[in-house]
Amino acid sequence: MDKSLSTRQLKVGRELQKHLAEIIRSKGMAVFSGAMLTVSEVKVSPDLSLAKVYISIFPSNKAESAMAQLNDNIKSYRGELGSKIAKQFRIVPELVFYHDTSMEYASHIDELLKK
């Protein structure tokens, strides 16, 4: 956890993470070329206008096409998110998707340690 984030930013981030995970899961794996996507973290700017969404992708060889799919449809994801959070938040933050490679890195380190 980033200590520089306020409690409000953390709460909003968790709420957005829950809703975005639901939206992405509802699309199904076929939309993402058979890749499984997980919303690993959402970091929200202090003014709550920007949400950095970190996505873990399995298998990692499908990451590029899955990220392209996400970024090509960013407006529709934001629209769906807006319909889910309209009663809770005044503004729907702009979404920026990032590929979260921390799991791949951990797996790589694990393999190196096994040698």
Q: What does it look like?
A:
With 115 residues, this protein is α+β, with helices and mostly antiparallel strands. The chain has helices at residues 7-27, 63-72, 74-85, 102-114, and strands at 36-44, 50-58, 94-99. A hairpin with a 5-residue loop joins strand 1 and strand 2 (50-58). The longest helix is centred in the N-terminal third of the chain and has 21 residues, at 7-27. The protein is globular, with a radius of gyration of 15 Å. The mean pLDDT is 91.
Number of helices: 4
Q: What percent of residues adopt helix (DSSP H or I)?
A: 40-55%
Mean pLDDT: 91
**Ends: how far apart?**
31 Å
Rg computed from alpha carbons, rounded to a whole number of angstroms: 15 Å
Largest sheet: 3 strands, mixed
Keywords:
three-stranded mixed β-sheet, single chain, alpha+beta, 115 residues, 4 helices
Element layout with pairings:
Elements: H1 7-27, E1 36-44, E2 50-58, H2 63-72, H3 74-85, E3 94-99, H4 102-114
Helix pairs in contact: 1-3
What is the compact description of this entry?
With 115 residues, this protein is α+β, with helices and mostly antiparallel strands. It is built from four helices and three strands; from the N terminus they run H-E-E-H-H-E-H.
